[in-house]
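May I ask you to review the protein record following this short note?
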Amino acid sequence: MRTHTCGDLNSGHVDQQVRLCGWVKNIRVLSETLVFVHLRDAYGSLQLLAEHSRMPQFAEHKRVLEQLNPDTLVDVSGTIVRRPENMTNDAEKTGQIELLVDRIKVLNHAEPLPFSPYIKSKLPNEEVRLAHRYLDLRRPELQYNIRLRSKTTSAIRQFMDDNGFVDIETPML
């Protein structure tokens, strides 16, 4: 389905056609002719660019983009282009590039979220976060912890297996 992940891409991919799948992080409609979408997946994020002068079916794509909510799952393809020099973002791995969108398809539309797990300064209190734990677990800090725990557990199990130990789970009664 996809050719790359968001985290795979860098300035070495400029002028290449790619296909990505990911979740919409945010949308910025700057004018009638320019829309930016921040796309993320489990491996990184990338800015998408929809520009009237460089997109044959811009009006149709703009309608789709304007209806996206954060965490909507999309399949998008296009060409990697270099960002203008005064618009690069050195804080991000993909801050030198963006994807000029040729095609976008909504795979699963998300309803508006009770809160955004990506804006640390706007997080609700712990009670609300626990009520919506599925959202809270999407926070970058928690994602890092989940992946670190998975890798640690995997390394321990591999070490134990390599040294002849048998991994046994007993049911809790």
About this structure: The longest helix spans residues 140-162. The mean pLDDT is 90. The beta strands are 17-31, 34-41, 44-51, 73-82, 97-108. The longest strand covers residues 17-31.
